Amino acid sequence: MPRRFFKPLSRQRHRWKDQWFMRPFRLLLEQPMYWSLNRRSVTRAFALGLLISFVPIPLQVLLATLVALGLRLNLPAAIFGTFLANPFTMVPLYMAAYWVGCRLLDVPGRNVDFEMSWQWLSTTLLPIWKPFLLGCLVLGSAAAVAGYILVGGLWHLSLVLKYHERKGGKTQIGSD
Q1: Which has more pLDDT, 24 or 79?
Q2: pTM here?
Q3: pLDDT tier at 62 (50, 70, 90 boundaries)?
Q4: According to the 3-state scheme, what is the secondary structure of the chain?
Q5: Is residue 173's pLDDT more than 50?
Q6: Is 86 exposed, middle or buried (0-12, 13-18, 19+ CB in 10 A)?
Q7: What gap in Å lies between CA 91 and CA 93, rounded to an integer?
Q8: d(C-alpha 162, C-alpha 118), whole Å
């Protein structure tokens, strides 16, 4: 199932190369390792994307692209993982990260209106940056581990099911 999901994304690499944010990397994108569909590359790249989705900066897709290029991972899976943080989920994710950070550092939480703007990052983030960034790191790491296990497990399960399907569904247990 995961391979079937990521295959159409990998086939569109020529369209990806023409995107404005990918033009500086056009020569690197010719390498097949960034588009290969093996379990190791896809699961690591997806986990990387989930980790980066908790980084409280704009342009997470660009950051995921740069890191995936450096680590030689599947680009579509890394970019897809960053979409966990989107305009609808960003505020709840960052509020949860701040709450987790406050609990881990044992500091009282403050009422903070989260807003993704440069002004908010430069003014409001200053008094709460320690618990907020710790919470982002903890939740991002947890999401990355969970995503790695989930995608790897689904990939393995689909391979096992395909194997049994090829064998005709006949499995012999303890034949003498």
Answers
A1: 79
A2: 0.74
A3: confident
A4: CHHHHHHHHHHCHHHHHCCHHHHHHCCHHHCHHHCCCCHHHHHHHHHHHHHHCCCCCCCHHHHHHHHHHHHCCCHHHHHHHHCCCCCCCHHHHHHHHHHHHHHHHCCCCCCCCCCCCHHHHHHCHHHHHHHHHHHHHHHHHHHHHHHHHHHHHHHHHHHHHHHHHHCCCCCCCCCC
A5: yes
A6: exposed
A7: 5
A8: 49
